[in-house]
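name: query_chain
kind: protein
chains: 1
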Amino acid sequence: MAITQTWTAADALWAIAVNAIDDANNSQSVLVTLLRNSFLKNGEPSTVFMRFGQPAVSQDWYKSVTWPRLNPMKTTLSQAMIAHEGNTPDPHDNTITTIVAEPVQLGDWTMITDLLNMETLLPIIAAQWEEMGNNAWRIIDEYIQSVLEADASIGEILAGTAATRDALTAADTMDFDLVLKAITFLSAQGQTGEKFKIVMHPNTFRDFCASSSTNTWLNKLIYEDYKWIKDGYVTSMENFDIYISANVKAFTITPSGWTAFTAYPTYAFRSGAYGVSSLDTLEMIYKPYGSAGTSDPLNQRATIWWKCAYGCAVLNPFFIVRMLSRASTNYEWQVAL
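structure:
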C-alpha cells in the first residue's frame, strides 16, 4: 500500500499499523512528514497575531531574527519646490534601520502509551496532533502579545473616561467610539490604501456589537456577516477589518485596596507594525516505543514533540494601538471537561 503526503495523518497511521511497517522501512520519517503537514494545516487557521506580522528577511536559526525598517519621509512642500529650471532641491536622506531580535525556544510534547494505542485506535492519536497544532499556534500568538505588551512605546487608549488601567470600571466596555479613536490615530500616520486590522476577544466583540455608539446599520452588517466567520474574520467597516480570537490574552488588574478585575486588550494595527519569524525552524519529533532504552524496557511509551525558535519585535510603535476595556461577560476557555 503506497503512502503519499496527500493522506491524512489518520490514514497514514492506520496504514503503518496494518502493514507492520517498521523504522527500517522509514515509517518514522513518513509519520513525521505527514504529522507535520497535519500540524501546520490544522494549527494555522487558529492564529491571528502570527498571520498579520511582517515576515523576517532572515533568521540565523536559534541566534537572531532580522527585519528592515524604512523610516517614513516627511519632506515639506517648500523643500520639494523647484525654484526654476535647472535648480535641484536639497536631498533628504531616509534611514533604514535593522531590527534584530533573539528568538525564544518554544515546544511541547505528549506521550502515547501502548495501552492507549490499543484501546483508542489510531485516529485518536492523529486527532491529538491536530490539537497540538491548535495549542502551538495559541502559544505563539500569546508570545507575540507578550512582546507587544512589554513595549512601552506602543500607545494605549482606555475605555470610558478612565485615566489609568486601575480606574477602569465595569461600565468601561468596548464601543465604536473607542475603535474610531484608534483608527483615527493610525490614519494620521500617513496615507495608505490598506485596511487596518482590529483584533478583539469574543467577550469584547459582544460589547462592541451591543454598544449604543455602534449604530443600527453597523450592527446589521456585523450580525449578517457573523455567520460567515472564517479564520477569525467577522466583518469590515469604514477602513478596517474586524477579527475575533480567543487567543487575545486578558489582563488581571489589581487596584490598590480594590478587588481585582479582568481587562481585555483590543489591538488595531496597520502593515509593518511588528515583525514575526517564519516557521522554518519548526521540528516534529517522533520517539517510537522503546526508544528510551532502559527507561522503557517493555516498549510501552512513545512520544510526539514539536519545537521551534520564534522571534518577534515591534517595528513601528506608531502603527499599532492597544485599546483596553472591561467586558460585560467574562466567558473563559474551559480546559477541563
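note: The chain has one domain: 7-70+94-328.
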